[in-house]
Amino acid sequence: MKNNFQAQHVLITGASRGFGKELAYAFAEKGARVDIVGRDSKQLQRVSQCIRHLSKQPSHFFSADLNKISVQNNLLTAVRQTSGQIDVLVNAAGLPGFGPIVSFQAADLKSVLAVNTLVPLELSRQLIQGWQGENRSGMIINVASLAGQLPLPYASIHAASKAAIMAFSSSLRYELQRWPIQLLTVSPSLLATGHFDQETRRYLKHHSLVDQLSAALLKQSQLDPAKAAKRVVKAAETGKGELDLPYGATGLVQLYQLCSAPVRALIANRYQLKK
Predict the structure, then answer these.
(1) How far is CA 69 from each of CA 21, 73, 82, 95, 220, rounded to the nearest angstrom?
(2) Distance between the two ends of the chain, CA-based, in angstroms?
(3) Contact 89, 23 (CB under 8 A)
(4) Which of 40, 165, 203, 206 counts the highest number of beta carbons within 10 A?
(5) How confident is the model at residue 256 (pLDDT cuts 50, 70, 90)?
(6) Is the pTM of this model over 0.70?
(7) How many CB atoms within 10 Å of residue 203?
(8) How many angstroms separate the CA atoms of 258 and 253, rounded?
(9) Mean pLDDT across the stretch 82-100?
(10) Distance (Å, rounded) from C-alpha 253 to C-alpha 190?
(11) Distances from the Cα of 74 to the Cαs of 12, 81, 143, 167, 222, in angstroms?
(12) φ/ψ bin of 194: left (φ > 0), alpha (ψ from -120 to 50), beta (otherwise)
């Protein structure tokens, strides 16, 4: 199936920065009418201006905290009242959820799971109900993570939230066969958005030369968010259902599934796990 996003109304959450912002630009380059959601109103305004320049289409931004139930209940109505019916929803908002489990408070857990998991589920549910009732076509793009298939140390909360999105998408895909609604699940590995230095590097070993080289190679292997976003849009254009980034990540996940013990041992050896 071929999809043309020219003048299509695309709503992207988590688009004030990072991967969500690059997805907004990538859709704008295809001539889509891109609306964005985030918490930083000043940054959203700057991104929205860039979107209009790229797409030559209107673009609106909605400054909102998706962790709030009232926002989840009213966001789509506000967007439709401003910009009309939504053709594509991109669930890109997310909180990191990295660190030792003992470093989290109950409120932290609830926030990560709400934004990473419950918000995409709820927004998808609302849109699907509307599309079904009006017999409209549509598309949902859920941004998951490779961590949902290949768990890493000090990422238990992040992995849990993304694994839930992947399971939700896999099950939902069966139901959507009844309607002209497409679903794309994107599972990127480490993106060069600053999370490596902020959330991951501190837990890697740095004692030996091998440790230092491994950390350097891991940092160099980070995906360029802009290039990754273009791949997502291309996959959406061609009607793909799943996209792992980089492409070789699928093989790594399959290796983990076939022989998890040695892969887990190899991963564990690169992290500070002993007292």
Answers:
(1) 24, 6, 21, 17, 39
(2) 53
(3) no
(4) 165
(5) confident
(6) yes
(7) 17
(8) 9
(9) 94
(10) 14
(11) 15, 11, 22, 26, 36
(12) left
